[in-house]
Amino acid sequence: MTPVSRTAPQFAELLSRALIEPGVVSRAYTAFHGYSLGNQILAFVQCAERGIPVGPIATFMGWKDKGRYVRKGEKAIVLCMPVTCKRTPANQPRPAGASEPDRDQHAETFTRFIYRPNWFVLSQTEGQAVEPPPMPDWNPTRAFDALGIVEEPFTMTDGNCQGYARQRSIAVSHLAELPHKTRFHELAHVVLGHTAEAEAGMSDSELTPRSLREVEAEAVALVCLEALGLPGAGHCRGYIQHWNQHRGAEPIPERSAQRIFKAADQILKAGTADAIDAGGPS
Ligand SMILES: [Zn+2]
Q1: What is the structure's pLDDT at 281?
Q2: Is 97 helix (H, G, I), strand (E, B) or coil?
């Protein structure tokens, strides 16, 4: 199968769609929660463009196993698959469809993303009735445990401070206007590695600039809130716009978009039961 590199969207484009358009994340998460957030939004965008009702998604063989068949002439949905590769000499050209390698990975290997047209939505198939996979419930205690992050009592006396993150702990003021939003924002600072950067005593030039840190953390909060149907996403949009202006209204870098999706995925997965995707009865 050939990678469809011509149409491979950047994560930054998918993220900006999610940040601008209310409801994209919540609808994408509801339909495609078994997949990574980048893929959820990618699938949602394709369904919207092609007028396909969103719903459960599977490969041709996946549907066959469930007693359903892809209708003749249906065009597959493209999703992104991360592939771990051995590092190649720097002067070797990247293969078609590969995006910028993830340089956070182990020195010997890196992740590249390829796009494959292998998936079909329920409404493109026919056959035996299937139950949609149940929505996972998100439990904050489970999430904090799985992430190795502690929520501490809030001790700051500054009345304007709603919450803070230090190393692997966070605190949310009992006066916080939107406690869910603040909790996800502070969790995101830890999961994105911002608190570790500060702890490592990195110089100003090595640190993620403050304005970008705020945009990244708030984008993660927005995605988590919308996915879980919690209030505050509208406030996130205003806050992101405010900090983006500090950044000269530059588009969010692709590298940041990937980090945002990855952190939101980690936080959402950490709070849901292990039973999801563990091959239980479907
Ligand atoms: Zn912050």
Answers
A1: 37
A2: coil
215 CA to centre of ligand 1 in angstroms: 8
Whether residue 170 contacts residue 152, with contact meaning beta carbons closer than 8 Å, is answered with yes
8 Å CB contact between 179 and 187: no
241-244 contact pairs (CB < 8 A, 24+): 243/211, 243/214, 243/215, 243/218, 244/211, 244/215
Give me ligand 1 centre to Cα 125, in Å.
Answer: 45
DSSP code at position 136: P
CA-based nearest residue to 122, from 76, 80, 63: 63
Q: How far is the CA of 184 from the centre of ligand 1 (A)?
A: 10
User: Residue 4: what pLDDT?
Assistant: 41
pTM of the model: 0.85
Nearest to residue 54, comparing CAs of 62, 63, 46, 64?
A: 46
Beta bridge partners of 59: 119
User: Based on the number of CB atoms within 10 Å of its own CB, is 58 exposed (0-12), middle (13-18) or buried (19 or more)?
Assistant: buried
